[in-house]
Design goal:
Rossmann fold, globular, 45% helix, homotetramer, 2 domains, eight-stranded parallel beta sheet, alpha/beta, eight-stranded mixed beta sheet
Chain lengths: 426, 426, 426, 426
């Protein structure tokens, strides 16, 4: 680890000289983070995190920086490490350390070893509250640092997969502290899955390929919240949508929205663009490669990079080559060419700047408020995965509405009473 | 009660001579009831209801008739009474009795007294299973016929308000048998609330008023499943939508779908058509009458007839008169005229033939399968409101898809394993 | 012809006693006719038709009545006959005569002979200006009453087919006076074809069949303005659309809007509902009857009743019967049943109350202003079909906007100059 | 001008070493240019341009390269210069010269002087046919090289502004040869204005700003074909649209599509994003700067860079700075910050790779076929701006459909006859 710059907080970042650009990006993002803006005044006044040591393990982006700044201004002693070795924005990391005096450990492209060192460094600071994205910090704590556990009053988790792991641990009685499942807040679902993934996935496809989406057959594999969002945006661009599903209720749902639903084997012969968001592996696999039209574009916006069986695609193809940034061409034996975007990883995160700041805003404000909740409920909550309190979800929505200048109604006393009793008179 | 016709089953209907028209309508509806069609073969073969006495308390419509016929063909001994005094289609009731030999008690416009007699007649038949819509039969059983309870192995309930009452009863330990909440099945939500209410509400408005919806400001009060469905359909007709909500999360949801969200006091000044689906009372009330534009149309597709404060509207107006079927004009003191549709009752049910048969099909097939489930689980289920088993929900969706010729994928063994374990590797 | 009622204007209507209901409907329609409302003040003040004899040959509906009243109030001496033997609303005809003192000749269901007598009666009044819908009056004048021609200073025509005939006549030098092609005004195209036909066609289908449109495959044959309108509305109801076209440019247009385009032979195997708006004959014909799915619904909203080859459908079917109002069932030899709506006539006009009043408003206001234009330009215009002057088209749009409370911008002087010269600097 | 590389065609490009990247991009674009692909076989066989000298003045992009290659393969002797000093893709220019042996003159960022030299070089080659985009070559020919005119049998023009200038010239009898107005082909309108501009404008906004469009108020100034396309795409992304227009017919059109229409002064107070496509100057001007919300984003996708009065915006602001690529911040005296994208130039062309290849394909195929048409009609056409022949427009559409695997119907002989005569029987 490089020595900290003289007079600066301890950190391990690419280059502090990048801080200026990072700062500009942090400030730009902040303008779209209206919920964080909205809770700042309260947090600064109430100092809910006063003197608390909070460790955050997040993708180091401009939006994450703004969460950290908010927590700091609410009294927290902070420490930040990267949630994965390749997701750090080095300019942002530099600015967090240099301009905001928050210790930060993350370098884009760091080795697994360095990544682990960063995690341990953060753990060594004896955190009392954990803000996690993907469970790396929480898992390391549980597996390797049982000594640090008693100090910790709770955690928050950003990702569905992190929550799933924690829930599995809790089921076996192994979770060491209560964790708030931020990933399941309804505002997060709305912004992140439906709106954020929808827009950014289509954005990534047009950026990387330059195709005109109107008039194309777009096949969406999986009609969960992300699939719905993507389908809506692709339709909005003039595509003809085909949905593939294994769940009959979701399939029916797609049909009643006017989409065509087909088994993938048939869809494979019709599609111009294929987007996987099924959350499962090999949904595009060996048996389908022969069916695709010449020029078909394959990409993934779902789970990890397993949805498309790339290994077998490579084995089946005569040869493969990079034709454009993020576009790999697979020349098939019969002359057809297939195009894989972004190596089958989450194309919406990899080929764009990531989710819009206003999307992350909703998540990160929920982290901040959930952290306050964990502190207030210290000792009361069980060592389980707990939902985001309805009141926080509503508060986030309310502040977002206010920031948009939207006014909504309130129930009258009469109406509240009526709601409480109507079924008795129904 | 009139004497049963010689040679016919006992019944109390308007006029058996209406049967021919009723039969034609029952058959017409059946053509759109593809799920009931799809489960018939199984039901006829399996005879799940063999020798069981089933009492149904339903709105007597062509679709209900087809449920009854299915149950009968599955071995049930049936008896049917009306779910409300004014909802019986007399021709259908006649045909149920005459053509299908099912005892039926319901006359459109019957007095409360006759309605009660009908309920008691059905109870007197000592039913073992209850199919209810609105809780009238179940409530009467609980309140007035405790002696009949021990025989009853369970019930199904169609309406949200019925389910709410039963849940309240169960909470106090008063529910006498398990009840399946058909109203909460996800296929029912999709078909009934989103698609059925959406289409039929706009249909009712255009039928009763003859307006061109394109270009109008349509205000939807309430953005629950029904409100969403209505908003989608009104937008599909070219309207500009304004949504009013008290729940900030729902309000935000509406905004992210591109709708305008306003407090009702402001929306009142802008709307051409107002549709209440809030589930609450007086959402259009005295303080708003002055704000409406001349010619504004008010209607309700939500809960009961309480959403619009009609009494006060009448008191505020200079005079009121019926201008067209289902359209009442209120002349205001300042010269404006407001139009109330269908006396503020559910306009989509009152001013059309009711929900499409394919909508009721999904509900009624769920009743049939839930009845089978109750019989199978006799003695196992607690005296609670229980959800429709996921498997039944999926089966309904699957049969509907098959009837549409839609094929969907199945998980491979590999994929099932992956789903079961992915969070461990996430 | 029955004798005119004592003290009333001469007329031939079903029954003057129907006038009360007719008057109520005329008034109701007027509320939606905001453009006619908007030009009334000017017309009453300017008296553009003062002492002019105007003969109108229109479908006798509440909206037509309001045009007549406007012309009368602008000084015209009027006479009205029906545009077809079966389209007269008898209550409206009665009210026009009784309540508004306008001579009217039309009885719903009148024989061709009576229809002709009515035309001749109107011609005998020596009209100076013709308002026509379908060319019956103009054609009769040209073919049988050359003596009446010199008096006539011009005409207006509502229907595309009428305009086509007149244009054909003009081409051969046979048109006796200038005719304004109201059917081609851009506001009329927008309101009538796209919005009016779109909404009313779907309305007619749901009324007559009760189907839930969501999730169905709807095949639209013809992607002209009407086809586009219908497709947009069906999509808005949740259908999956298939478009059939013979024109490649229009077909491509449909694809770029995200619709599926297929040859009809393939579409025939997929559709649940078929709507013809091609303007041609036998677009659904013998070779397709075998392809339809069981339960397919066929209807026409295009040209006359020739688009579906009903005669051959009848010959191919085993038997046919009326199952509901406007629904005829054709039982095919292989057991499938097909449903024809409204005998293949324009389903949107026949199975509903007709186009919304706000649609006809735009057309009829254009007739009124075009009549004024003809009078002003008397002697100047050639004996040709002439377009609606752009200024009238814009005036209609402007008044409609004003009636909706919509304000739009005006070009500044600078901007006008820039527009006039920009290409020189481009 | 640099000396041509030994063994290569004469050219003036940035660096022939860039050719490899250029070639890859040309090939990538070609895959989306299905109409050019579709006409190649015919052109290679028919050699319509055999031995003809064709001068093209186009933006030097991968798509333009593919047009040139097609013309070359059809027998033409070609020469290409840039249509503007800043639009040349240097890698593409290099490849055109090096890999395809076509003389090319264009360097991105060349001075006006060099630009003029390039034009003269091309003119010196004594072209017989002109392919122009923006009229620079044609205008130079007319103004400065009358001696070259007699050789020229005709031209084609890509841009509306070029066509407008040529039409103005023709009006005064000054146009020296017939010019086909490619910009007015209906397929070009569809692809370029509605689909291409729509998608690329929203693409540019999300790329440059990273905003989530869902839930924002997007103001589109101008509801011509481009405005419609942009509005449709913004709506498809979940925005709430506000349209501003000066033409009442277009304003009404927008309303009947469900959009809100407001005068700009009111829209200015509500919008989050403003997009000008009015074709006029100063539609956003001094009087509006005070009205915008803090954070409002301004951009132009219309005509030139005059639609937003940037000069006055700069004078009004306290200071301005570049905050991100293509994003300039204007800090207003009251603390609000406004953001101008891409210096008010066409954001969709400047901040993306340009229109999708499949859009340009349609235009360039029309140029190729129109050039063939000009040759065939040599001596027949008048020295006017002439429309693209309907048959070419249809052929382009037909080939595009075929490339998508879409089959459409053909009229039967019977139907053709019917169409020819129906009005006689109507």
């Amino acid at each position: 680890m490089s020595a900290p710059a003289v007079g600066a907080v301890p950190c391990d970042v690419r280059d502090l000289a990048l801080a200026e650009r990072g700062k500009r990006r942090i400030e730009w993002a902040f303008q779209s983070m209206s919920v964080l803006q909205g809770i700042r005044k309260h947090i600064i006044k109430a100092q809910p995190y006063a003197n608390l040591r909070i460790a955050a393990c997040l993708h180091i982006t401009p939006e994450a920086a703004n969460l950290l700044i908010t927590l700091r201004d609410g009294g927290a002693n902070l420490m930040l490490c990267a949630a994965s070795p390749n997701s750090t924005h080095d300019d942002v990391a530099a600015s967090i350390a240099k301009d905001y005096n928050i210790p930060v450990y993350g370098i884009c492209g760091e080795s697994q070893e360095v990544f682990d060192v960063h995690l341990r460094t953060v753990i060594a600071s004896q955190p009392q509250l954990i803000i996690d994205d993907g469970c790396a910090l929480t898992a390391t704590l549980h597996e390797k640092h049982p000594e640090a556990m008693p100090e910790i009053l709770g955690g928050t988790e950003e990702s569905p997969s992190g929550v799933a792991r924690m829930r599995a641990a809790a089921k076996e009685g192994l979770l060491g502290f209560p964790v708030v499942a931020v990933s399941e807040a309804s505002t997060k679902q709305l912004f992140d899955n439906r709106c954020g993934t929808g827009q950014s996935t289509l954005d990534a496809i047009t950026r990387t390929t330059g195709v005109l989406v109107a008039g194309l057959n777009v096949v969406v594999v999986g009609f969960g919240p992300c699939g719905r969002g993507i389908a809506a945006r692709a339709r909005g661009l003039g595509a003809n949508l085909i949905i593939c599903e294994v769940d009959p209720t979701r399939a029916l749902d797609a049909i009643m929205d006017g989409y065509r639903v087909l088994a993938f084997a048939e869809a494979a012969t019709l599609g111009d663009i294929f987007i996987t968001v099924s959350g499962n592996k090999n949904v595009i696999s060996r048996e389908h490669f022969d069916k695709f039209k010449n020029g078909a574009i394959l990409c993934n916006a779902g789970h990890s990079s397993v949805e498309i069986d790339i290994e077998n695609l490579g084995l089946t193809a005569l040869h493969r080559r990079q034709t454009r940034d993020f576009v790999e061409e697979f020349a098939m034996r019969d002359g057809r060419r297939l195009y894989l975007l972004g190596e089958g990883r989450l194309i919406n995160l990899n080929a764009t700047e990531g989710l819009p700041a206003s999307v992350m805003d909703v998540s990160y404000a929920t982290h901040a408020l959930s952290a306050e909740y964990l502190i207030k409920c210290n000792g009361v909550l069980q060592k389980q995965v707990v939902p985001v309190p309805l009141e926080i979800d509503r508060q986030v929505a309310r502040i977002k509405l206010e920031s948009m200048g939207v006014k909504i109604d309130r129930l009258t006393v009469d109406q509240e009473q009526y709601l409480a009793t109507w079924f008795q008179n129904a």
